[in-house]
Design a protein that fits this description.
The structure holds two protein chains of two kinds. Chain A is mainly α. Chain A is built from 30 helices and three strands. In chain B, helix 1 runs antiparallel to helix 2 and helix 2 runs antiparallel to helix 3. Classes of the chains: A mainly alpha, B mainly alpha.
Chain lengths: 678, 101
């Protein structure tokens, strides 16, 4: 094992936001709102600066040695079970921390303007800083358990921020839903960790961190027999956090929170945690073609499924939310076909343009006096020029128009899906890409084009947002345009620097690569290319193949995206009758099904929640709680105490002579016992 | 007749039982206090006797300590009793049962 470089700056990247949260949280209302906001922003800026510092230090190292760690202390030391409290940065977590703190900082600045008039502004910034702390713990955690701590921490912050305006019942309910659905996923994550522990612990000597990623990677061979179960359990956790089928239902509801929260947590950073975790555990996933196939399939299906729902939604944030679910599906698809570095590439570009789109929609909502329904918007292009143009940049990036950021990452995902040998995965992704362009154009047209359909009252208040809100939009727009240029693939004449940078993380050590090939030899042809692509790191599995196919596919997806945009513009701006005929198509029921999100919420309500309520009411409440717990345990034990007490009370009569008498008898009995017991 | 250790112990036991019975049957707090003193004295006799027969001076130390404790206890006990008598006009322990509950 190569020598470790210690970098104590790492802990401060994590701790500074916590400090900010502590100050804001403890002083709360005693701080002026603007001070609280500036403090929180400064904390994240420091964190970002430190991340950049460590990142630059990493770039100065030779590619294979790019790893710094900061082990603070041993957290759990018990026999040969050891888990450290520590942080580590390698190329993968470097990318993530730059994105999280960078985009996080921009969103903090935006919140200065967006939350300026909110009474709970200090509380808001406390949670926001706490979130950055948790997210950085997740990203920089040196082992799986630290990652899990951050994982739960971001879940908590997500819950707190979704139900930030908790006086509205619906917001509180959305928060609860997010938390509970995530708990289901977390349960799978926990079981996965237990399985790792149970499999690996007997083979470990002392002094090795059980869940440390490096140790896990070294012992991938031992874990190989259990890899399928472990990876599927971990993937259950990822479906919860990254809103994949079947646990995606919480994310659209999470839009109840303030818009900067939707941008930061529910688009740019937290929801990508599942993708990050799978990329982090890539050495295990490549060993199990079954799990890889499941990941790819779930990702592709989610991408299409969510895109179709997004076609019909009328709430501007709901469209973006389903778009996020869909894009997360793409990232999962990339993971599933072994293109981990492409998945992270898409995480990054998506963080830029989706944060931009959410912040832009926040600017729109702000201007429309908190109206979110696109049916009463329209014509905002002239009134909000800066918001409009930045929004266009985000839309084009998301639709995959070259040379914006989204084109490169999405195209690479589709190319790798094509290369995986499973053309169905590619086709699903390809169809969803066209839909993405279509629903985004629909959103843009309904919001920015045509005549404004709001009431005169609202209309008179429409104004461009303050500079604190538009500046982050501009920065993110620049990133959405140029952010993809770090990863231009070879066939387009680019250097694919991003993939090269991540290569050390995803290139497998000999032992894993061998196992992976073994797994391939044993069957599961579909994942063959996945494992191969992974073991080759960021290089294309078909690097030696001719690039003609790559050109054709890239051209096709570009044309397809433009076609989607044009269709969207045509239908919603020119020929509104076409849109209306869409709604009436097939007797109107396809539109109704999509508008109601395939009735998934209703299905869960009927299949899980209602029976659970009924079970709770009849058995758990009436029998277990009232009968067993309250009747037998609580009242039963009280009865025993009462009976014993009523007997014992006879002895406490206040007569000193009686006490002395009982005392004497007691002593006499004791002495007699001592004398006769020998 | 030679006086042995047994004689001393029997004497001590007799005094102790006298004190104990007195403590249990009498109701006057002052008499009860005196009975406690009797029991303490019997213990002193045992200490002194063992000390004498085992040729070990340690017992005498305990006797002296006991004197001090007994004196202090009597002083505090009497002070409490005087105060109780001032308030309640009685030192009959059977009437003093407000600590019952």
């Amino acid at each position: 094992m190569e020598s470790h470089t210690t970098e104590t700056l790492l802990r401060w990247i994590v701790l500074v936001p916590l400090l900010g949260a502590a100050i804001n949280g403890l002083l709360n209302r005693r701080l002026p709102r603007q001070v609280a906001g500036l403090l929180a922003s400064a904390a994240v800026l420091i964190s970002f600066a430190l991340s950049v510092t460590v990142f630059l230090r990493l770039t100065g190292m030779p590619a294979e040695a790019r790893f710094v760690s900061d082990i603070v202390t041993t957290w759990i030391g018990f026999g040969n079970l050891q888990v450290d409290l520590g942080f580590a940065m390698d190329p993968l977590s470097a990318v993530m921390s730059l994105v999280v703190t960078g985009v996080g900082f921009l969103i903090h600045i935006y919140s200065l303007g967006y939350m300026a008039h909110d009474k709970g502004s200090q509380r808001f910034f406390t949670y926001l800083n706490l979130f950055i702390f948790a997210m950085m713990t997740l990203v920089l955690g040196e082992n799986l358990l630290m990652l899990f701590v951050g994982w739960e921490g971001v879940g908590l912050c997500s819950y707190l921020l979704i139900s930030f305006w908790f006086t509205d019942e619906a917001n509180a309910a959305a928060g609860k839903k997010a938390f509970i659905v995530n708990r289901i996923g977390d349960f799978g994550f926990l079981l996965g960790m237990f399985l790792i522990g149970a499999t690996l612990l007997p083979h470990l000597g002392g002094g090795e961190g059980l869940l440390s990623f490096r140790v896990l990677q070294q012992h991938a061979g031992i874990l190989a027999p259990a890899a399928t179960a472990i990876c599927l359990l971990l993937f259950v956790g990822a479906t919860g956090k990254s809103a994949q089928i079947p646990l995606f239902v919480w994310l659209p509801d999470a839009m109840a929170g303030p818009t900067p929260v939707s941008a930061l947590i529910h688009a740019a950073t937290m929801v990508t945690a599942g993708v990050y975790m799978i990329a982090r555990m890539n050495f295990l996933f490549v060993l199990t073609p079954t799990a890889m196939t499941v990941v790819a399939t779930v990702g592709a299906v989610t991408a299409l499924f969510a895109a179709t729902i997004a076609l019909t939604q009328n709430d501007i944030k709901k469209v973006l939310a389903y778009s996020t679910v869909s894009q997360l599906g793409y990232m999962m698809l990339a993971c599933g076909v072994g293109a981990f570095s492409i998945a992270i590439f898409h995480v990054m570009t998506h963080a830029f343009f989706k944060a931009l789109l959410f912040l832009g929609s926040g600017s729109v909502i702000h201007a429309m006096s908190d109206e979110q329904d696109m049916r009463v918007m329209g014509g905002l292009r002239k009134k909000l020029p800066l918001t409009f143009w930045t929004f266009i940049a985000g839309t084009l990036a998301l639709a995959g128009i070259a040379p914006l950021a989204g084109f490169f990452s999405k195209d690479e995902i589709l190319w790798n899906a094509w290369n995986s040998g499973n053309k169905v995965l590619w086709a699903i992704g390809f169809i969803a890409a066209g839909m993405t362009a279509f629903y985004m154009m629909r959103l843009v047209v309904l919001t920015f084009f045509g005549e404004n359909r709001a009431s005169a009252e609202v209309k008179s208040h429409i104004h461009e947002s303050p500079a604190t809100m538009t500046m982050p939009l501009v920065v993110l727009a620049v990133l959405s345009i140029a952010g993809g240029w770090v990863g231009i693939p070879h066939f387009l004449g680019g250097g694919a620097h991003f993939m090269t940078w991540l290569e050390p993380v995803f290139s497998q050590p000999a032992v894993v690569a061998e196992l992976a090939h073994g797994a391939v030899a044993h069957g599961a042809e579909a994942a063959a290319h996945g494992a191969e692509a992974a073991s080759h790191g960021a290089e294309h599995a078909g690097a030696h193949a001719d690039t003609t196919m790559e050109w054709i596919l890239a051209g096709a997806s570009l044309a397809w995206g433009i076609l989607g945009l044009l269709a969207g513009y045509f239908v919603y701006a020119r020929k509104v009758s076409v849109a209306e005929s869409f709604q009436k198509m097939g007797g109107g029921w396809p539109h109704k099904v999509l508008l109601n999100k395939y009735y998934v919420d209703e299905a869960y309500e009927g299949a899980i929640i209602r029976p659970m309520y009924r079970l709770s009411k009849t058995v758990l409440w009436k029998w277990v709680d009232v009968g067993l717990i309250n009747g037998l345990l609580v009242e039963g034990s009280a009865l025993v105490v009462a009976v014993v007490g009523s007997v014992m009370r006879l002895f406490q009569n206040g007569l000193v002579r009686f006490y002395a008498w009982s005392f004497s008898i007691g002593v006499a009995v004791f002495v007699l016992y001592l004398s006769f017991s020998g | 007749m030679e006086i042995t250790l047994t004689h001393y112990l029997l004497l001590a036991a007799a005094i102790f039982v006298t004190g104990m019975v007195g403590f249990i049957v009498r109701r006057n707090a002052i008499v009860m206090l005196m009975c406690v003193e009797l029991m303490l004295s019997s213990v002193n006799i045992v200490f002194a006797a063992f000390s004498r027969f085992h040729l070990d001076g340690g017992g005498h130390v305990f006797v002296l300590m006991n004197f001090a404790v007994a004196a202090a206890e009597a002083a505090i006990g009497l002070a409490i009793l005087v105060e109780i008598f001032r308030r309640r006009r009685t030192v009959n322990v059977d009437d003093l049962k407000t600590l019952m509950e």
